[in-house]
Amino acid sequence: MDIDKAIKDLIPENMLRRSATTLESLLSPIRNVLHQRRMPTEPFTDLQIEILLKILSSLDTDKDLGAARVGEREGRIVSPIVEQLAAGFNHGIGRSGHITAPQPKAPGASLMQQTANQVALDAMRRFGLGNVRSGMILPVSTGMSIGLSLAALRQERGIKRVLYPRIDHTSPKRGISLSGLELIESPTVIRDDAVQADLGGLERLLETNEDCVVLATTTFFPPREADSIKEISKLCASHQAPLVVNNAYGVQSESVMSTISAAIDAGSVDLIIQSGDKNFLTPVGSSIIVSPDEDTLRSVAETYAGRASAAPVVQTFAALLALGLNGYNRFRDEQVKCRSLLHNRMTEIAEKLNQRILKVQNPIAVAMTIEGMDAGSLGGKLYNRRVTGPRAINAGDYGSCIDKYPYSYIVMNAAIGANETDITNATTKLYKEGSSYTELA
């Protein structure tokens, strides 16, 4: 090390060797990520993440104190805290015609982005999608990523309309609208308690509509079950229709990821979209898109207009490093335990309140009937008691992904990052508020 030569006369050689060992243990994981571009097995420390980001951001031209900066965009920042919010990547990422293109003024940000994309792709492969070939982190959330993906397919393949198995959620529909494509809602059916995509109805739409893409969904609130991605991929392959999968918060579920991987092998899957915050515990604002085809993903990158903020990308990159493969798997294990606890607790509550658990397959959430209660009132009471996230729907109201769903119900989630205390506190308050309706009756 060059530093050895500078200080070898200042401290004893044995101390110098010991300090070099300490420094190497700190820097070795950083070097491995830059060289291998894979998700680390063990989590990075905050110091290691900070060092890596400082090194990379220092490569950008706005850090050159001797530069004569006469452009209209020079990374000039009004306050240190503003710079911290973007981790020092003041020039952002991408160029005007390509969101992942290297930027001359931002070699550090460009290197960060390319490394982040490779780490994200590696993470998606190791968490279940071993058969995807390309991936990137987009600095926009899931709905916008859906819009960009569909717009890219419109431009590259002449797609005119989107076949969408019904999901009562505004964000994907706004993404479809943004892409300029026509939305054709595919019907759903009720089987037992579950609301499912009608595959027969979807196939009829594929047979009668040309130049269409299917937007399928893996994760949503009960009673809606995940679309049958493998069967839909076969339908899309036989009708030569692209398939985009909204896998919003499915990375945390091994079963969901396994289903998507099987669908890629069985038929046609073009793009899979994941939320950054819902899967990797980041602030809202990023998504990870992967594809079995590099050209398809490249067309999405070329659809993004202009440069973009580096902040959502660097946040997702840092989160992947902070989690590490083993750390994320521990979160996954905890999610499974919390989901089991949630089911058991809500089953006990349902029995006490003369309700029942809806029979719906969902690896994240549990739904319980609330017959005789007002969903809006119950949801409001829980919110006021500091319970965030439950979803309460009255029978027949919008939100069940089908007209005239026969039951009123409430949904609670045991998503990644939740702990047993969250589950226990939330269900205890649910029982107390639910009991008040029983007492009134």
Describe this entry's structure for a reader.
- With 441 residues, the chain is of the alpha/beta class.
- The chain folds into three domains: 2-85, Arc Repressor Mutant, subunit A (Orthogonal Bundle), CATH 1.10.10.2160; 107-323, Type I PLP-dependent aspartate aminotransferase-like (Major domain) (Aspartate Aminotransferase, domain 2), CATH 3.40.640.10; 327-440, Aspartate Aminotransferase, domain 1.
- Helices cover 48% and strands 13% of the residues.
- The strands form three sheets. The protein has a seven-stranded mixed β-sheet with strand order 1-9-8-7-6-2-3, with helices on both faces.
- The model has no long low-confidence stretch (mean pLDDT 95).
> What is the count of helical runs?
15
| Major sheet: arrangement of strands | 1-9-8-7-6-2-3
**Binned strand content:** 5-15%
User: Roughly how many Å apart are the termini?
Assistant: 78 Å
Summarize the amount of helix as a percent range.
Answer: 40-55%
Number of structural domains: 3
What would CATH call the class of the largest domain? Alpha Beta
Described by the principal axes of the CA atoms, the overall outline is globular
Structural class: alpha/beta
**CATH homologous superfamily caption of the largest domain:** Type I PLP-dependent aspartate aminotransferase-like (Major domain)
Radius of gyration: 25 Å
CATH topology of the largest domain: Aspartate Aminotransferase, domain 2
Average pLDDT works out at 95
How would a crystallographer describe the biggest sheet?
7 strands, mixed
Number of separate strands: 12
Q: SSE string, helix = H, strand = E?
A: HHHHHEHEHEEEHEHEHEHEHHEHEEH
